[in-house]
User: Fold this.
Amino acid sequence: MADLLDQGIASLAKSLARKEISSVELTKTYLSRIAAHNPGLNAYVTVTAEQALAQAATADAARARGTAGPWAGVPFAHKDIFCTQGVRTACGSRMLDNFIAPYDATVVERMRDAGLVMLGKTNMDEFAMGSSNETSWYGPVRNPWNTDLVPGGSSGGSAAAVAAHLCPAATATDTGGSIRQPASFCGLTGIKPTYGRVSRWGMIAFASSLDQAGVLTRSAEDAAILLQTMAGFDPRDSTSVDLPVPDYLAGLGQSLRGLRIGVPKQHFAQGLNPEVERLIRSALAEFERQGATLKEVSLDNSHLSVAAYYVIAPAEASANLSRYDGVRYGYRCDKPADLEDLYKRSRAEGFGAEVKRRIMVGTYALSAGFYDAYYIKAQKIRRLIKNDFDRAFSEVDVIMGPTSPHTAFALGSKSKDKDPVAMYLEDIYTIAVNLAGLPGLSIPAGLLNGLPVGLQIVGPNFAEDRLLNIAHQFQLATDWHTRTPGVAAASRGDR
Amino acid sequence: MAWETVIGLEVHVQLSTRSKLFSGSSTIFGAEPNTQASLYDLALPGTLPVLNGEALRMAVKFGLAIGAEIGKTSVFDRKNYFYPDLPKGYQTSQLNHPTVGRGSLTITLEDGSTKTIGITRAHMEEDAGKSLHEAFPNDTGIDLNRAGTPLLEIVSEPEIRSAREAVAYLKKLHSLILYLGISDGDMSQGSMRCDANVSVRRLGETTFGTRAEIKNINSFRFVEKAILVEAQRQIDLIEDGGKVVQETRLYDAEKNQTRSMRSKEVANDYRYFPEPDLLPVVIDDAFIASVRDTLPELPDVKSQRFQQQYGLSHYDAQVLAADRDTARFFEEVAAKSGDAKLSANWVMVDLQAVLNRQELSIAHSPVAADDLAGLIKRIKDGTISSKIAKAVFEAMVAGEGSADAIIESKGLRQVSDSGAIETMIDAIMGANPRQVEQYRSGQEKVFTFFVGQVMKESRGKANPAQVNELLTRKLKG
Amino acid sequence: MAIELKDIENIAHLARLQLNTAEKAEALGSINNILMMIDEMRALDTAGVEPLAHAFEASQRLREDVVTETDQRAALLALAPNAAEGLFLVPKVLE
Assistant:
């Protein structure tokens, strides 16, 4: 059974196909592991054991009939930002603690249609606002590599669950780095697709023009499989792109010979831990060994990405979160005296401090007299940032650099600080990618003091296939992605 | 001291699409509360809008009808404010890039003169739900069936100068939207709602006075009264040395006065910004051309044609063309009866009187176009006189059958037998020798006395032309 | 551009958030820090640059005017904190 827990989606699917194990057995294995280890990690906020076993039985039956799809019966977890019909969808917030979603997100629908088995919903920063998973109403998630450390955020629950082998893979979302940074901190492969590649219907909005769903897995191969299942046009999302989705799995065999890699000088500047830099540079050397060439590129306005982001994202969020008013669903304060009281207390009590802070920043940026100076200005910077990438991609095929300036940091070390800006700067290398709408991927590229370091690979629009292939080629030549944290190893020993 | 009223109107028109602006919920009026409020309408987390193409086509149709610039790229914005009937906490509207840009509407005033009123813009937005304040003692009930229904907000320039002009503008607008088939225009159901910006200034002044906005006036009559009473309030205020404050006011029809809406006193800061869940709406020439192809003949063009084709007066042509159903009815009667002028008269005068009396629209006319044409044919071919025709028409209204059937059953056929008429004339002349003498001595106006007597004797059925001819011959001796 | 306590109060009101004195003070400090970070952006000359609202420039897709939704009142009203007679209830609003 120990080996089973080490396996990713691709190999589990093979075991299931060969009937070496049933989906019900596999699901039970994961459920018992969740029961044993989740209390220490707080990765899951909801475990849907009953539904999972029912789904697993359905998959087994389909397999017996010969009607099962290739991934049917493989367990996984959903970030608690995706609406799941009949299952609480809280988005890390007290506001939605009582919210049983009445419908399924498109992503949820597609995973279910593929026969994948949902084990539960994973913890996250409240409304995806955070880089450490410490803003969740359900408490912080702990990093399986060292439980004194954060797993990263906002998809910290998904990252911790995959890293601790509480599921083989999980869905996640990324507005400013929320897939790639936890992937980096937890030693996982995480891909944020191009904006518009995956439907946002049923995915609770933080910042509509930046939010994008993706996956956290243990390999590029698994990411290719899950992304294939999720991606594609959805008429219910006006920002969904109507383009064919390439066969990601089939595209994993390409040589990297002649690949032109851009190395942005701004991502290797002051603030980057020199040891992280060393590991990233040695990863780049591996690509050179495989026939790629490196070229320095300049993203001139990247130093302004965090500033522009912290206008645009809070502005959009301030409106997106106005619907939480205690009227139609969600939290309502006790005995409201009048309508104003109902609004103000429900929202004050239902939202946590970081969410309120961002709503206020966004409200301010859009308010009369400041709109041009903040919002329009930020949108202009956004165009300059996109232009920087466009220019770079006229010379190179992908851009590579560190995902984060450092490894996972200690719980409370940044959140206790009265200055939220320190936390915001966590996403310094990832945020510009969201502003430009580009696909970005993070893969494990080394260990520093026993902690994973992530390499970010950014591509032009809809180049997910290219990113996945590059990551896969790296993973064929290296074993960083197979390294597992202590908690997983310990548990293997237990058995 | 003479005063001038300056008025700008903001008219909300509910577009008559089957489904809502951004969701697939039904827009049918009068359903049980919240049965037409789906996931998006309730602003459930994770839900997203997709634009209803028909609503866009209707907005463009309106734009083309008022000769407006059509926004090649229109952008939806979020207008942020909290209210229980606004589920998302923002209304999706259009601020800087509306679908319909500058256009105009020409109105005809009561003295027959015309005036062109500029239309600043018309933008698309979603309607709010309804708050029911009376249903519960301590609570307000929220019904979101209407939330998300597409609206076109039509904003005029402040070029309207009297309450009557305002009403003429609204009636023209009403006629136009019905023509275009983009709204049912039913003010009683809120399908057309009007806000009026009213200010006053001394005649001859060139700058505008401070304006008050009167909200949600729901009938043509109230628009006129509300503007009159508000203008007078402002004049009185200024003449007493006071100052008009810029504010929102509500018209109270019962008391015929406007009052300040205190709840709106706190300055709103709507924090508009482009709706990120929707992309810019790009309209190409082919789209515009395809909408243009669906435009009906518009009232002004139709009126021109009526004058040329049927020889109608400007006034008659305007009245008949103002309403699409009336124009259609008239043309059908004219075609079938072969007499356009008689048809115009009957539709505008006699039929309209019946419709007004019975409070019916022409679509529900108790006399079908075919039947009215039948009646007119009998006038033309001399079967009945115009006077008898009125009686036949009343019988038709009462549902007694076709013109021919009524003429037959009541024996109303005009007497055109010259022998019978001559006999009648001879008898009347014999009985009134003094009048015969008067006529023959040159007092020709006694002629009408004889006509009247013949008609009386024939109970109106004698053919008037024949009566004239025979009488003249016989009296002249 | 630093903001003052009255700005915090105004923003909190616009956003319908009730803040106590301590929360207002905390918000004032942290939001001013954030604005200071953002101000870096404002120093850049962006004359002539078109604002970018969406990362990719496409046009809005149009939906056919078809009723696709059915009555889900019972299920949806069940989510409401307070509802009766088919209506969502809020404390009485005085016009």
Summary: DSSP finds 17 helices and eleven strands in chain A.
